[in-house]
Design goal:
Length: about 100
C-alpha cells in the first residue's frame, strides 16, 4: 500500500515511521514501512513529495487498511491510500 499526501517533507521526523506502523497495525501485522521522498523534476527547487509505503504480512488484507485510511485527515492533509504494484515494490521501484 502507498500513502500519498500524508505529510510534507518538512514534517518527517523520527516518530513518523513508528506512528504509521502503529496506525496500520490496527488492521493487520506490518512487515515494514518505507518513507520515500521523491523530487518532481531535475531543477534544484523542484517540489518534493512524500510517499509512505506499508507492507503488510498478508497482502490479501491490504484493502481493509486502504478503505480505512483513504481520504482520512492526518496533520491537516487528506491522505490518499492506494494499492501499490507488488512487483515494483519488490524491485525497489517506488517511482509510480
Amino acid at each position: 500500500m502507498v500513502l500519498r499526501n500524508m505529510v510534507d517533507p518538512k514534517d518527517i521526523d523520527d516518530d513518523l515511521e513508528g506512528e504509521v506502523t502503529e496506525e496500520c497495525g490496527k488492521f493487520m501485522a506490518v512487515n515494514r514501512v518505507i518513507i520515500y521522498q521523491e523530487k518532481q523534476g531535475e531543477e534544484e527547487d523542484a517540489e518534493i513529495i512524500v510517499k509512505i509505503f506499508v507492507e503488510f504480512s498478508m497482502a490479501s488484507e491490504t484493502h481493509k487498511a486502504i478503505q480505512a485510511l483513504n481520504r482520512r485527515w492526518f496533520a491537516g492533509r487528506k491522505v490518499v491510500a492506494e494499492v501499490y504494484d507488488q512487483e515494483r515494490f519488490d524491485n525497489s521501484d517506488l517511482s509510480a
